[in-house]
Amino acid sequence: MTGSAASDGLAIETSGLTKRFGSYTAVDSIDLRVPRGSVFGFLGPNGSGKTTTIRMLLGLAAASSGAATVLGGAMPTDLHRVLPRVGALVEGPGFYPFLSGYSNLDRLDTADRYAPSSTRRRRVQSALERVGLSHASGKKVRAYSLGMKQRLGIANALLTPRELLILDEPTNGLDPQGTREVRNLVRSLAAEGTTIFVSSHLLAEIEQICTHAAVMSAGRLVAQGTLAELRGVGRPHVLLRTPDRDAAAGVLARLGMGVDASDAAGGSDRGVLVAALSDAAPDRVVAALVAAGVRVEGFAVERQSLEERFVALTGEGFDVAQ
Amino acid sequence: MSPSEAIDGQGAVRSRPTIGLALLGSELSVLFRRRRTWAMLLALAAVPVLIAVAVRLSSSGPTPGRGPAFLDQITQNGLFVSAVGLIVSIPLFLPLTIGVVAGDTIAGEANVSTLRYLLVAPAGRVRLLVVKYLATAAFCLAATLAVTIAGALIGVALFPVAPVTLLSGDTIGVADSVIRSLLIAAYITVSLLGLSAIGVFISTMTDVPVGAMATTIVLSVVSQILDSLPQLDWLHPWLFSHYWLGFADLLRQPISWDSFGQNAVLQGGYFVVFAALAYGRFSTKDILS
Ligand SMILES: Nc1ncnc2c1ncn2[C@@H]1O[C@H](COP(=O)(O)OP(=O)(O)OP(=O)(O)O)[C@@H](O)[C@H]1O
Ligand SMILES: [Mg+2]
């Protein structure tokens, strides 16, 4: 698939969506635009408002102000029309501990008036199969491990064919195999045309599966776009290791490449110069440096990783924003 | 395959929602498959059994005028065990179990986080409330029948069965007396519907089921205490527990339906008020559990 943007319209659109808890603003006037067919990563540190946003998108919580449109229907007004087409995992799974995995899914499926009872058995079984729980389907959920519950939660989102999946930290508690399986699952669902909105802390994961992403920080949406846009793909950086710092800077400046004074990408290493690559080809840059007598000890063209971008957007601090 | 094709592949059912009886079926099956539910029904069934066994084992037999109404009758006629069991259960045991079931309806779902998944399914908030209330009402019936049936069985097993002499002095046959027993069970089931509505409403207010259960049970006790204070005469007809023990009219020939009717109207009033409150509370509540 070349571009999700090519498919018609948006699966999720919000305008000025805001949620206040008392005087605390958990979600602050965000304008999300999730294209249909995209795998959309919803990033943000703990407490940045991801789950709260998802609750509003699903009609579980009312927005303090602003509006949300999901699959073309206003939420929560058109909830009955919209939600049967949406599968969701919100802040961890929730099941009756005294029922088996199978019975739990069967029960939740009866709640959907559009889910045909004639196919219920088959659909529940295939959802369980899809997350690798067939063998534990008769076991009481009380006896499930964290990862098994998480898998069951994902199975619940797959009970009927969905146009949109909203998955809040789907790989939470999963083992590496489980994580891989979820990644493959997301890919295969996306290939079938399902739009997937997935929140996560695991940037590497988002980087692997997403076509688009948005970054939340303290309730605000600080960035969104295709993954390439977010990484700043228009401006790859060169990393140059040299003892001749000033001379190199001069050469780079002549080639129209601004040296990043903040050393953000190079860390505190004074021996490394970071500069945005201009339209000059990298080999020409090296040639020019060598011609000017700059000792080139190392040279690399690098795209900023999402993680670097993420930290740049949300700040380094470990403390939860309050 | 486009998403819409995938959905059409499931058949046209997608465009024609069912009226959603499946959720009620599932609710009833979850309720009546729970061990807790069976434990409560068994405890209720044990009430008439204990009474019958105790009376049977005591040599002297109950003295007329002491103990619950009809207690002195059961040695002559086992058919009275059900009635005695119900009279003993009404003040506390029945409200206790109803409080547990009604208090658990919404708060219990919130507590295990299934509430958000039911609503996202989407169950529909109003439909979920209706289903929860109907399941609670079904439990009221099951609870009352547990006492009635256990009482009848143990009564027949331990005591002679004879035609029943009614309060009006008439005598009715065994078959007719079974019908009267079922009428009493219906009366008591109706009696508990107001409390059920209160319990479901309280359950929408919290994510802690035990809190909702306890509050409901306490309210049923408070109502009965207020009903026993002569100073509050004016209040008595408005208390949901006021007619709880008023099924004596069903033991006359011909049956007087007055108290049944008054009770039904009162319970209906409580239902309307608390259903409206529950709707007002739950239809806009933020589900953050
Ligand atoms: N019921 C509530 N009452 C008050 N504040 C709340 C409530 N729920 C969430 N918050 C606050 O809203 C903010 C956003 O919470 P939210 O759960 O949306 O974060 P998140 O991005 O999902 O975090 P995490 O990555 O840890 O899941 C937090 O600061 C939280 O304290
Ligand atoms: Mg969260």
Helix tally of chain B?
A: 11
Task: Classify the beta-strand content of chain A into a percent band.
Answer: 15-25%
Distance between the termini of chain A: 40 Å
Structural class of chain A: alpha/beta
Largest sheet of chain A: 6 strands, mixed
Mean of residue pLDDT values of chain B: 88
Helical/strand content category of chain B: mainly alpha
**Cα Rg of chain B:** 22 Å
In this entry the ligands are: adenosine-5'-triphosphate, magnesium ion
Spans of at least 5 consecutive residues with low confidence of chain B: 1-13
Number of helices of chain A: 11
**Biggest sheet descriptor of chain B:** 2 strands, antiparallel
Categorize the overall geometry of chain A. Answer: elongated
What is the gist of this entry?
Chain A is an alpha/beta fold. Chain A has eleven helices and 14 strands.
Q: What features would you describe in this structure?
A:
The complex is a heterodimer of chains A (322) and B (289). Helices cover 32% and strands 25% of the residues of chain A. Chain A is an alpha/beta fold. Chain A has a six-stranded mixed beta sheet with strand order 7-8-9-4-10-11, with helices on both faces. In chain A, strands 1, 2, 3, 5 and 6 form a five-stranded antiparallel beta sheet that branches. In chain A, strands 13-12-14 form a three-stranded antiparallel beta sheet, with helices on one face. In chain A, a hairpin with a 2-residue loop joins strand 10 and strand 11. The longest helix of chain A has 16 residues, at 176-191. The model of chain A is unreliable at 1-7 (pLDDT under 50). Chain B has 289 residues and is mainly alpha-helical. Chain B has one domain (15-283). A two-stranded antiparallel sheet of chain B has the order 1-2. In chain B, helix 9 (193-203) packs antiparallel against helix 10 (209-227). Chain B is elongated and about 60 Å long. Chain B starts with a helix and ends in a 7-residue tail after the last helix. Mean pLDDT of chain B is 88; it is low at 1-13. Chain A binds chain B through residues 55, 58-62, 79-80, 83-86, 88, 90, 92-99, 106-114, 116-119, 156, 160-163, 192-195, and chain B through 1-4, 6-7, 9-11, 13-14, 17-20, 22-23, 25-26, 30, 33-35, 112-124, 128, 284, 286-288. Adenosine-5'-triphosphate (ATP) binds at residues 21, 24, 26, 44, 46-52 of chain A.
